[in-house]
Design brief:
heterodimer; A: 113 residues; mainly beta; 6-stranded mixed beta sheet; 4-stranded antiparallel beta sheet; B: mainly beta; 7-stranded mixed beta sheet
Chain lengths: 113, 114
């Protein structure tokens, strides 16, 4: 089941390469950011998050960088594997006291063996 | 532990028909929400609920109704389906509606309106 359309930006990498997926966010008041991974036919799955008082956070094989000056977020995946092939979304939220997560349109990552 | 369960996975409707997309979670999450996902656009919030008996509109609520009679269930109703409602719908839940949260998503329901 394809969950998104054909016009997503696509990043193609070789297995073992490092991948960098970028995201520009819109609200300078956003103070919490999340990266989601969405495999074909599935719902988005949490990868990593970062608060606005940080500029870097590391997980297992993933690192998120936040540049508040230019409202830019990036997701770095080390030693990319075929199982990393998916659509990746960033999401931002302003901690105003009610739920409003704003999602980006996504980037498709294709990993070749 | 099933997480968030959506039914049906696929549905085809004719214009004007009504239907309900079901969503159930077994994690005792207070917060539940419905999103739609369309080509070239990010997920957009339709309706959300911060607890049983409480619902509110999201970004694109027109044409949809919701109710939250129990903590576990959050059905989405299309009263009179239109082709513009052709989309993939995702239900999500989380433990905290405010501030930092991590949504758990269902697998999605693909709806086609002819």
């Amino acid at each position: 089941g394809e969950s998104v359309g054909l016009h997503l930006p696509t990043l193609s990498v070789q297995e073992g390469d490092n991948s960098i997926i970028n995201c520009a966010y819109s609200n300078s008041a956003s103070d919490y950011f999340i990266w989601y991974k969405q495999e074909s036919g599935k719902g988005p799955q949490f990868i990593i998050d970062i608060r606005s008082n940080m500029d870097k956070r590391q997980g297992q094989r993933v690192t998120v960088l936040l540049n508040k000056t230019v409202k830019h977020l990036s997701l770095q995946i080390a030693a990319t594997q075929p199982g990393d092939s998916a659509v990746y979304f960033c999401a931002e939220i302003e901690n105003t006291g009610f739920q409003k997560l704003v999602f980006g349109t996504g980037t498709r990552l294709l990993v070749s063996p | 532990n099933a997480g968030v369960t959506q039914t049906p996975k696929f549905q085809v409707l004719k214009t004007g028909q009504s239907m309900t997309l079901q969503c159930a979670q077994d994690m005792n999450h207070e917060y539940m929400s419905w999103y739609r996902q369309d080509p070239g656009m990010g997920l957009r919030l339709i309706h959300y609920s911060v607890g049983a008996g409480i619902t509110d509109q999201g970004e694109v609520p027109n044409g949809y109704n919701v109710s939250r009679s129990t903590t576990e269930d959050f059905p989405l109703r299309l009263l009179s389906a239109a082709p513009s409602q052709t989309s993939v719908y995702f239900c999500a839940s989380s433990t905290r509606p405010h501030g930092a949260n991590v949504l758990t998503f269902g697998a999605g329901s693909r709806l086609t309106v002819l």
